[in-house]
């Protein structure tokens, strides 16, 4: 098992670029295709904490699922927003790289180099 994990969507250009960048650095991360194997609520809460983000900051707010599920409601709790990402993993910004107790969002892909 690798010490580096990437939450990856092979259909996303930024995710593919980040994976290629890691490979160019000699890094072979564990690849988690999060649309097939989404993180659970506890993992997602930990990722948010590592990134220093609130749930909405990690959400793709332009997606239909965001609007259709009323996720713009300011009354929704952190736990409810996290559960929405678990239930609808397509809402999660990508890619996310975890390394040595740190996390980075690969937007832009080069930002992940800071945690290697």
End-to-end separation in angstroms reads 16 Å
- The CATH class assignment of the domain at 40-116 is Alpha Beta
Sheet with most strands: strand arrangement:
2-1-3-4
Number of helices, where a helix is a run of at least 4 consecutive DSSP H or I residues: 4
Describe the biggest sheet? 4 strands, mixed
Structural class estimated from helices and strands: alpha+beta
Oligomer: single chain
CATH superfamily of the domain at 40-116: Glutaredoxin
What percent of residues are in strands?
5-15%
CATH architecture of the domain at 40-116: 3-Layer(aba) Sandwich
**Residues in helices, as a percent range:** 25-40%
Shape: globular
Mean pLDDT: 96
Low-confidence stretches: none
Give, in order, the helices and strands: EHEHHHEE
CATH topology of the domain at 40-116: Glutaredoxin
Per DSSP E runs of 2 or more residues, the count of β-strands stands at: 4
Q: Supply Rg.
A: 14 Å
Could you give the topology of this structure?
Blueprint: E1 4-8, H1 13-24, E2 30-33, H2 41-51, H3 64-68, H4 78-87, E3 96-99, E4 102-105
Parallel strand pairs: 1-2
Antiparallel strand pairs: 1-3, 3-4
Tell me about this structure.
The structure is a single chain. The protein has about 120 residues and is α+β, with helices and mostly antiparallel strands. The chain has a domain at about 40-115: Glutaredoxin (3-Layer(aba) Sandwich), CATH 3.40.30.10. The chain has four helices and four strands, in the order E-H-E-H-H-H-E-E. It has helices at about 15-25, 40-50, 65-70, 80-85; strands at about 5-10, 30-35, 95-100, 100-105. The chain has a four-stranded mixed beta sheet. The longest helix is centred in the first third of the chain and has 12 residues, at about 15-25.
